[in-house]
Specification:
Helices cover 14% and strands 48% of the residues. It is elongated. 39% of the residues are buried.
Length: 290
C-alpha cells in the first residue's frame, strides 16, 4: 500500500512540474509561477509594472516574460511568457477537509520541491491584506516555507485546487482556490493593473434622514481630504454615499468591496443623497491606493 501511495505521489509531482515555472532571478527573489494556458503564468509579487520584463525558467531553459497586469489587492501578477506550454487543470470543486494534497514548488531554476499535506480548513469569505475579498479559501497543515509562494496545490486526480499565497497572519499554508485566481487573471488580461481605489473620505454608517427607494442606510461623509479624488469630484461633508459603482454602501465594508479590483483612471460613479433626500451622481477618477 505504501509503495502504491509513493508511486501515485511521484506521478502527481511529475504532472505538476509540467505546469509550474520559476519566476525571477538575480536580485529578485525567485518564486514559483503557475501556467494557466495560452502562454500565461500567474505568480505573486509585492509590486509589478505592466510591460516589465521578467525572466521565467522552464526547467533549465530561460524565457523572457512580460507583466500583463498586477492586482495590488491580492498580490497576483499575470505574465505573458511565450514558449510556455501546457496548463494546470483547475479542480471543479473545492476539496473537503481531510483530503490529501500535494504542493509542488519551483523555488530555483531547475529545482523542484514537494510537500504532502491535508486540507485542514475550507473557509468561506475572507479578505486579503491588500483588500481583495475572496469567496472562499483553503488552508493545509503544512508550515510555510521559502519559495512556496504561488506553488500549485494538486488533488489526487492531478487537478489544481489552488495556489499558495503569502498571508502574514497565518502560520499554516494559505491557499487561494484556483477559481478565485483565474477570476483575477480574467480582470488582469485587459493589460492593466488593478487594485483598491482611494477616494479620500472619512465616513460613518447611519440611517438616512430621508430614505430613498432601495436605500434606508448609507455612509455619512465626515471628512474629505484635500487634493483627494473625492475633493476634486465635488464630494462634501454632510452628504450621504449610498452607492459606489454597482454596489450599495450601507456600511464601510461594502464601500471597501466597491473599491477593490478597479483600474487607475477608471470613471467611478458615486451616488450621494443630501439630508433632504435629493439624489445625485458624482463621477470620480479612480486613483489606486499605494
Amino acid at each position: 500500500m505504501l509503495a502504491d501511495l509513493s508511486n501515485e505521489i511521484e506521478a502527481l509531482v511529475a504532472d505538476a512540474r509540467k505546469v509550474i515555472v520559476t519566476v525571477g532571478a538575480g536580485k529578485a527573489t525567485p518564486r514559483t509561477g503557475v501556467v494557466i494556458g495560452s502562454g500565461e503564468v500567474l505568480t505573486v509579487a509585492m509590486a509589478a509594472d505592466v510591460g516589465e520584463k521578467v525572466p521565467v525558467h522552464v526547467g533549465e531553459k530561460e524565457l523572457e516574460a512580460s507583466v500583463l497586469g498586477f492586482d495590488a489587492s491580492s498580490g497576483l501578477a499575470l505574465l505573458s511568457a511565450p514558449g510556455v506550454d501546457d496548463a494546470a487543470r483547475p479542480a471543479g470543486d473545492l476539496p473537503k477537509v481531510g483530503a490529501l494534497t500535494v504542493t509542488v514548488a519551483a523555488p530555483l531554476p531547475g529545482d523542484y520541491e514537494a510537500r504532502l499535506s491535508l486540507i485542514r480548513c475550507v473557509g468561506g469569505e475572507t479578505r486579503l491584506r491588500g483588500g481583495r475579498r475572496l469567496g472562499s479559501y483553503l488552508q493545509t497543515d503544512s508550515a510555510r516555507f521559502r519559495g512556496f509562494n504561488a506553488s500549485v496545490v494538486m488533488n489526487h486526480a492531478g487537478e489544481a485546487v489552488g495556489i499558495t499565497m503569502p498571508v502574514h497572519r497565518r502560520e499554516e499554508a494559505f491557499v487561494m482556490p484556483m477559481a478565485e485566481a483565474l477570476r483575477i487573471a480574467d480582470e488582469l488580461r485587459s493589460g492593466d493593473s488593478v487594485g483598491t481605489g482611494y477616494l479620500g473620505i472619512q465616513t460613518t454608517p447611519v440611517a438616512l434622514p430621508t430614505p430613498i427607494e432601495g436605500a434606508e442606510r448609507g455612509l455619512l461623509i465626515t471628512g474629505v481630504e484635500d487634493e483627494s479624488p473625492a475633493k476634486k469630484a465635488g464630494l462634501s461633508i454632510g452628504t450621504f454615499v449610498v452607492m459606489v459603482g454597482d454596489t450599495m454602501t450601507p456600511t464601510v465594508e461594502e464601500l471597501y468591496d466597491a473599491l477593490v479590483g478597479l483600474h487607475a483612471g477608471q470613471d467611478l460613479e458615486v451616488m450621494t443623497v443630501s439630508s433632504e433626500g435629493e439624489g445625485s451622481v458624482v463621477h470620480v477618477e479612480v486613483v489606486l491606493r499605494s
